[in-house]
């Protein structure tokens, strides 16, 4: 029995076996193994993805496209073909391609991926204040549904751009996606209240551990959610965890708090190919965490299928 299987079994037994059983899980290891580049392990998740399940946060890297001079993360190629292996492994059929910091405001890699994926994909672009209305309209026609402000791997965007660009993309029905640490979210709480467009917080809001829900950014995010103005991505369990795999107990508590507060405002993402992680996580374990975070099957379907339909404009799943 390999170490990956032992790790997953320990996680499930310790933090959610009953939740998975209630949600129609399969038996781990029974399905055909599937190796995926930039992902540890080969087993399928125990949790079965519902039809139309969407991975709302992943990236494509392709050396055909130039790296931005300001880039601090420059991973090797992680292609559409590689990602389709991940879809086959975890059972998702829709995805949202997010332009990574590697390319600055050059969205050609993301747009090329969207054209290859076809109608089952949407995108989130990176633009700055110089973007024209004509370009925004063109991006909309190519499947872009939001713009990202990465203020952690900073370079292409700034806080000063948030409000004016939020006003412009709101006319298209887009959102602004914010990758910012919790302390920064608190600092700009008043600005976030002024933004006209919806806000999507990356990676559980980047709340530091062990503070978690006691960090003041959690209250800022919940207030925006209560106003119907914000969404949170259940993604990047490993990014701020002080405990780590296989159960990520600290980020699990945070995710469960979001689920208790507002499941109608949550989406899920793999963060494949995990560009911030030198040791790649097991994507089956990450997907199985949903069985612990969201024990109710109908609520999981809402997060994986129905909420992405609302936020990204996917057709209603069968």
Task: Please render the helix and strand layout as text.
Layout: H1 3-15, H2 17-22, E1 54-58, H3 80-90, E2 94-98, H4 108-117, E3 121-125, H5 133-141, E4 144-150, H6 162-170, E5 175-179, H7 182-187, H8 189-194, E6 199-201, H9 216-226, E7 230-234, H10 249-261, E8 266-268, H11 283-293, H12 297-312
Parallel strand pairs: 1-2, 2-3, 3-4, 4-5, 5-6, 6-7, 7-8
Helix pairs in contact: 1-11
Task: Describe the overall structure.
It is a single chain. The protein has 318 residues and is of the alpha/beta class. It has a single domain (3-312), classed as TIM Barrel (Alpha-Beta Barrel). The chain has helices spanning 3-15, 17-22, 80-90, 108-117, 133-141, 162-170, 182-187, 189-194, 216-226, 249-261, 283-293, 297-312; strands at 54-58, 94-98, 121-125, 144-150, 175-179, 199-201, 230-234, 266-268. It has an 8-stranded parallel beta sheet with strand order 1-2-3-4-5-6-7-8. Helix 1 (3-15) runs parallel beside helix 11. The chain is globular, with a radius of gyration of 18 Å. The model is unreliable at 1-31 (pLDDT under 50).
Under CATH at level 1, the class stands as: Alpha Beta
Query: Globular, elongated, flat, extended or rod-shaped: what is the shape?
Result: globular
Please compute the radius of gyration using only Cα atoms: 18 Å
What is the rounded distance between the termini?
38 Å
- The number of domains is 1
Low confidence ranges: 1-31
Number of helical segments?
12
Strand numbers in spatial order across the main sheet: 1-2-3-4-5-6-7-8
CATH architecture: Alpha-Beta Barrel
Number of strands: 8
Q: Mean pLDDT, as a whole number?
A: 91
Structural class per helix/strand content? Answer: alpha/beta
CATH superfamily: Metal-dependent hydrolases
